[in-house]
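To whoever is on call:

I kicked off a structure prediction for a single chain this morning and the downstream step that reads the tokens threw a length-mismatch warning. I double-checked the sequence; it's 304 residues and nothing unusual in it as far as I can see. Pasting both halves so you can look.
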Amino acid sequence: MTTAVPTLTTSAAPAGRSAAGSSSRRRTRGLLPSIVAVLIALAVAFPLYWMILSALKPTAELNSGDAALFTANPTFDAFARVLSVNDFGRYFLNSVIVAVIAVLGSIICAFFAAVALTRFQFGWRTKLLIILLVAQMVPIEALTIPMFFMFRNIGQVVPAIGLNELGSLVVVHIGFSIPFAVWMLRGFVAAVPVEVEEASKLHGASGFRFTRSILFPLVAPGLVAVSVFSFISTWNDFLFAKTFIISAQENQTLPLAILNFFKPDENDWGAIMAGSVIMTVPVLIFFVAVQRNLVSGLAGAVKG
């Protein structure tokens, strides 16, 4: 007697093809964001490349209107013309002084303001936050003329922050940086548990000691992120420097030095691009120095 054994059919091949197709689709979906990121990076980096290329092109080649993406005869003549400007080093130093003081002043004021608005309860807290938010919405151009007259009058009492003085630039940049910095730092301060402060008080630490030794280091990534935005806006400022520094050439900043190459008859585009490259270098150095803390700071701001 013969027993029939049923034949089992397997679908190993179709299943294998299905798994392979699913893996291929996952790789495609994973590759698409990378392609988009590369395209965005190229779009952002191209103006920087074009600026450097224009600074290195000979004047005749640059004025010819040739839009070639490279030059066979690079030259540093444009950089030499920029560096030969009278008091160029003084302009550069003035920009550094204004940027450093404005950054330090804004992050210190914003830090203590964020602590007060987050840790303390008082009647005008919500109204003050709304005022800070509204202050960011006002166009800078609408405030330039009133601030001109304000610094003109203040300069008669306190000359150090009057017209034609670097102090006026420092004050105005601190004022415009604080609202954004306070809103950003509030999230970092609020993220520190109240239990940490209570534990520090149980160990005998005063409020100032807690703020200086515990809260400040925990909020440091946010301070770095705020300092980057403050530094960039201050370093690249042209409007306020042109408005408040009227006749004191020794107090002019770096953007005003580049203005020397804008001429009525013909602009020196090579020198303008070379000066822009020189202005970009400190920003890149500062960004590279704090990039790790900047990323964590922006992530903390989003969470906050």
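Update from on-call: the warning came from a stale cache, not from the record. Cleared it. Sanity check on the structure: The longest helix spans residues 12-56.
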